[in-house]
Specification:
Elements: H1 2-39, H2 41-77, E1 81-85, H3 91-102, E2 107-113, H4 115-124, H5 129-133, E3 143-148, H6 154-165, E4 170-174, H7 177-219, H8 221-229, H9 234-277, H10 289-318
Helix pairs in contact: 1-9, 2-7, 2-9, 6-7, 7-9, 7-10, 9-10
Length: 319
């Protein structure tokens, strides 16, 4: 037992030196790989640009899809169901029916629009004011604006509209359910397309890094052979190339985020003009901050993976 206790202090400095050497080599590998990238600026920039463009495309489509969804909501995806009452229905009947409909579990709110309010809205439209002045009486009926409960799917909203059509005092029900259902289907397809595109372009970025590292390893095959002959481990030899993959991925991820921000900036002006045409209802929303911050480290991990796969395969061949 005394022998083990005496041996332990001798092993501790050796372990400390080993950890210190491991850290030093990681630091040297990171710095050396960055110097190699800087030594061939054109090739490095082309690789980073190709990867950055590949990673920016899914971000651009994600931005486009999110804003199309917001535009759909602003232009009528969550629009209330308009229930037009019979012309002989007065205000008291309209209020009573509004209370009856509002008690349903699938209805969030009911607003009564009077004929005068409807006439005022028509008067604001271009070309209607002169024609309305010629009317002897208001021909518009009372309208109930029924807002479905949030979270209802298209089938539930369609059922609600069908129940409202069956009411005896109702003349017509105007529902955008079919339009809503088509938009939901298109957005579902768009989400799948963005996901498939992101996977394919991520694979393309991985292949770009892998090919760049493969060329770099092939150009230094004699140096690698000497290192393997003197007993260097595979991890020791491939470490600089792994850091090269990390640098490629990190810089391309930063470039992809900057390109996405540039697309947002380019869309600001046209969307502002479009929003004015729709009374300020349309607003563009940028990519969430967490996504922009997650792209560079995710791209760095992707670059590391590409370099890891190719360097392991190349070193097995060299051995």
């Amino acid at each position: 037992m005394n022998t083990d206790a005496a041996a332990h202090p001798r092993n501790e400095p050796s372990r400390t030196r080993s950890v210190s050497s491991w850290r030093e080599h990681h630091g040297w590998s990171a710095a050396d790989s960055l110097r190699r990238l800087a030594a061939r600026p054109l090739g490095s920039l082309l690789t980073i640009a190709v990867m950055g463009l590949a990673l920016a495309l899914p971000l651009a489509f994600y931005l486009l899809l999110g804003n199309v969804q917001q535009m759909g909501q602003a232009l009528g995806q969550d629009q209330a169901i308009n229930v037009f009452l019979q012309p002989d229905q007065g205000e008291s009947q309209a209020r009573l029916l509004a209370k009856q409909v509002g008690d349903r579990s699938d209805v969030a709110a009911v607003t009564v629009k009077t004929p005068q309010q409807g006439l005022d809205e028509l008067a604001k439209l271009q070309g209607f004011s002169g024609a309305l002045d010629a009317l002897d009486q208001n021909p518009l009926p009372f309208v109930l604006m029924v807002q479905p409960k949030p979270g209802l799917d298209a089938l539930a909203v369609e059922r609600l509209a069908g129940d409202l059509r069956d009411l005896r005092s109702v003349a017509q029900v105007q529902d955008s359910g079919a339009w809503r259902q088509r938009l939901d289907a298109l957005l579902g397809v768009g989400n799948r397309v963005v996901l498939a595109l992101a996977l394919m372009l991520a694979l393309a970025a991985l292949l770009v890094v892998g090919n760049t590292v493969r060329v770099d390893i092939a150009s230094r095959s004699e140096e690698i052979g000497v290192l393997l002959l003197v007993g260097a481990s595979g991890a020791f030899v491939r470490r600089p190339y792994l850091y090269a993959g990390i640098w490629y991925g990190l810089f391309s991820g930063i470039l992809a985020g900057l390109l996405a921000l540039a697309i947002e900036f380019a869309l600001d002006g046209p969307v502002a003009r479009l929003s004015q045409a729709y009374d300020g209802k349309l607003h563009i929303s940028g990519l969430p901050l967490w996504l922009l911050l997650a792209v560079p480290p995710a791209a760095a991990a992707l670059g590391w993976l590409g370099a890891r796969l190719v360097s392991a395969w190349q070193l097995r061949r060299a051995a």
